[in-house]
Specification:
The protein has 218 residues and is an alpha/beta fold. The protein contains seven helices and six strands. Helix 3 packs across helix 7. The longest helix has 19 residues. It starts with a helix and ends with a helix. The N terminus is likely disordered. Bound molecules: flavin mononucleotide (FMN). InterPro entries: Flavodoxin/NO_synth, Flavoprotein-like_sf, TAT_signal. It holds the Pfam family Flavodoxin_4.
Length: 218
């Protein structure tokens, strides 16, 4: 019972923490966010902006997203389902399982404002039964990623990227995909909000995102 209460308190702090995290990111990274019309010095090329778009239920993917956004000077957007998932891990597992079995794709929330202004999108998500969360299918189908470079990153208990790169290729028609990053996340039954990632994941997120951006722009 006590664990459940703690989990509930943790998840109810999400909104507050999310706001705090965005403010901290803005303070830390404001000077490095690219303007949409910034011209790369000496090349005469226009440098489109970079975005980190992510979904996270218990914080692992959010923490990686914040590290990546800071490392590459990107804007950040939180993807959300139209209806929030239950607070309980088991209820979320059961609901997602029912949706998978019925081949249902629940609606997603708001779209990325001004996606046209971004050339590169780092896309982060947790792995839910060896796949993308169901509503992410809906979200990705509603956005036009043609001509953009997508860099996927996942967090999971053990499934890595779980074949989601192939799914993204199908859903995001016309996008160019660069090799993704798989990070360790919460284990089975994990139900509390995390507010940091371990040092190794932090370092991998930074170096992967910077290397990806260099590759995309070359
Ligand atoms: C509904 C559900 C299904 C999951 N399925 C898997 C899975 O198939 N493989 C895996 O390694 N982890 C699985 N997990 C664990 C999550 O991928 C992991 O805890 C992730 O880091 C959570 O990210 P978040 O904190 O950003 O929400 C699942 C978690 C949930 C809630």
């Amino acid at each position: 019972m006590r664990d459940e209460e703690n989990a509930e308190t943790d998840l109810s702090r999400r909104h507050h923490l999310r706001q705090w995290a965005h403010l901290a990111l803005a303070a830390a990274g404001a000077a490095t966010v690219l303007s949409p019309l910034e011209v790369l010095a000496g090349t005469g090329r226009v440098s489109p902006r970079t975005l980190v778009a992510y979904y996270s239920r218990t914080g692992h993917t959010r923490q990686a997203a914040l590290v990546i956004a800071r490392a590459v000077g990107a804007d950040i957007f939180e993807i959300e389902p139209a209806t929030p998932y239950p607070r309980s891990y088991q209820e979320t597992v059961d609901l997602n399982h029912r949706q998978q079995r019925a081949n249902e794709f629940p609606p997603s929330g708001r779209l990325i404002p001004n996606l046209a202004g971004y050339g590169t999108v780092f896309l982060g998500y947790p792995i839910w039964p060896v796949d993308l969360p169901r509503f992410l299918y809906t979200f990705l189908r509603r956005q036009n990623f043609a001509g953009k470079t997508l860099a996927p990153f996942s967090t999971s208990a053990m499934s890595g990227l779980a074949g989601t790169e192939a799914t993204l290729r199908r859903l995001c028609v016309g996008a160019r995909l660069v090799p993704g990053l798989a990070l360790p996340g919460g284990g089975r039954g994990h139900n509390t909000l995390v507010t940091s990632i371990d040092a190794a994941s932090n370092q991998r997120s930074e170096s992967w995102s910077r290397a990806s951006l260099t590759r995309m722009r070359s």
